[in-house]
Every structure is written in C-alpha cells, then in structure tokens.
Amino acid sequence: MAYLGNAPARSFISFERQVFTIVNSQTAYTLDHSVNNENDIRLVINNIVQEPGSGKAYTASGTTLTLSAALVNGTDEMYCVFLGRATATNAPSAGSVNTAAIADLNVTTAKIAADAITEAKIADDAVESEHLNNNVISGQTELAAEPADTDEFLISDAGTLKRIDYSYIKGGGRNTLLATQTISSGVSYFDMTDVMTDTHNNYLLAFHGVRFSVDGSDIRVTFFTGSGTGGHVAGGSDYKFAYSEIRSDGTMSTSYDTGTSFYRPNKSGVGNGSNEAANGQLQFFDMRGTIKRQMYGEVHFTDANNNFVSNWSVGGSDMGDAACTGLRLEAASGNIIAGTFKLYGQE
After folding, report:
1. What's the DSSP call for residue 342?
2. Does residue 4 lie within any of the structural domains?
3. Is the pTM of this model over 0.70?
4. How far apart are CA 10 and CA 23, in angstroms?
5. 3-state class (DSSP) for residue 73
6. What DSSP line would sit under 220-281, residue for residue?
7. What residues contact 119, with CB distance under 8 A and at least 6 apart?
8. Which of residues 41, 58, 89 is at a domain's end?
9. What is the pLDDT of residues 138-187, one digit of tens each?
C-alpha cells in the first residue's frame, strides 16, 4: 500500500534462532544479540519451551544467558528464538538529529567530552563567584619575592574588573629596601657593598636585636667609595660626631669625638646579657653627592648596669668628592652575635 511522507523508521524482519553447543557443568552462555531481559527470547531445551524469570529455568541480560541448572553435552539440546528482534529500528542518519528531537535537560555530563567546553561556548559575564573554587588563588604557583613592576593584579574599579601593574600600587614612598643582613653567629664586622647607587642620595639603616659578645661594646660605621670593599673604609681622621645620652637612672650626658676613623652612634656600651640588645636607626645624607657626608642616629639599648639608655647622635665625614658605594658595620670590641640590619634608599 502506498504512503505519503518519510519512510517508516522500522522494518519487519524474521525471528532469529540461535543453537547452543552444550558445555558440561556450564550454566552461562553467550547470546548472539543483546537483550533487555529473558522475556526477549524463547528458550527451548530438548524441544520443551522453558519458563523465563528469576527462580525459573533461565534469566538473560545483555548477551548473557544464565540457566538455573547445567546441561549435559551429547544428551541435552538447547536453542533460543529472539522475540525482541521481530522488529528493528533504523539508526538516524548522520546530522539528522536536531535540538527539537532532544528532550530538555537530557544532555548529561557523561555525554560531554572532557575539556570540550571552549571559551566561545561560555557567554560573556556568565561565570559567577559561586563557580570559583576557594583555591583559585592558593592553588597557583607561589611568587616568593617582591613582584616586578610589570606584574599585574586584578582589581575591581567601581565594579568593573581591571588589571593594574604592581608599579602603581607598590607604594614606593620614602624608603626602598636595598639590603638585609641577619647575624646569627659571631662576626667582628660585616659589609654591605655596592648598594649605594645614583638612584638614591640619602640612606636609612634600621636595626633591631643587636647583641655583642663583649660587655659594653658598641656599633661602629665606616664607608666604601669604590667597588666592593675598595676605596675608603676607615681612613685617617675623617669622622666627627657628637651625641647626647639619657639613662633610666636619671643621668644625662653629652660628648663628642673629632678626627676619628669611624662613626660611633652611641656613647655608652651595650650590655651583653641574653636579654640586652640595641635597636635603632641611622640616617646618612648626600652619600652620592660631592658635599660633606652628614649623619644622624638614634640608638636605644640596655647597658651593663641594667639601665635603659637612649642615644641621639649627629656627625659627618670628609671623604672628598668620591661617591659612597657601601658601608661596614663592626663591633668596637668582640663580635656582633645577633641582630638584623636593613638598609633603605630614601627618595
């Protein structure tokens, strides 16, 4: 009979029969075609139709046929007829399934290949905060140093995401860290070389927890004018300074030195007890210029008599026109056994 429209999706085929080779003591056999369950086949053993189902003669699932009891080769015979293959469904042709043929909410994660979602498939402004894992930052490689000026940060500018270079937010400000020296074992002195450049003219040396091996020792400072430890270190009588001191026992004193070979920022010495240390800061002015170098310092410490002491000092040095490149810090006697020193360039 003729018909209008597309060809039917199904076509009639004959029932298919499969004859099995009996294996002694075996209850599982392989079907030629996959089935939903045992009701899709009719099983005949020794010309007797068997009852399907759990607890009955047999069950079937996929391509596995399971008998409730094993048969004997040469004695028993078995075949099945595929009832479920009386009709067949033709597979749709390539490219023929459109979105209308797929029910809503029926494309599952298992049907999407890993890493298959491209940027083009994600709408602008579609990724919300709830889709970000809490390790979106902590899970990345650590930058274990100060960022470079061109390193970028993500910020919200009045609700609009923008990127910004570190150079705009690092502050810069008055002080730029140039060198750090931490003392953990005894040294009579240490150097900070080639740290003073034309980038800065003034410098700040901050220190804390400075301890000495000898009771009553103090810090002495000298400068380099050449590369490395070259140039003027502690020469002649170039240094002049004065200081004022106040102690917790109520005494005060002032003094000065002229024509020395070093700058000493504190008048009295620091105690060498485990709980006695010096803290403070020294400022050095016009270290890259051609005028006489000028210095100012504040040092706070505990002395050998368990007095809390504060020193203020001013001074300078005649070192000609050579620009300073670094400095040396040393103990007046014994060793420096602890302390942290940080040198900053000042704008």
Report:
1. E
2. no
3. no
4. 37
5. coil
6. EEEEE-SSTT-S-SS-TT-EEEEEEEEETTS-EEEEEEEEESSB---SSPBP-STT--EEEE
7. none
8. 89
9. 999 999 888 998 999 999 999 898 999 988 887 656 788 999 999 999 99
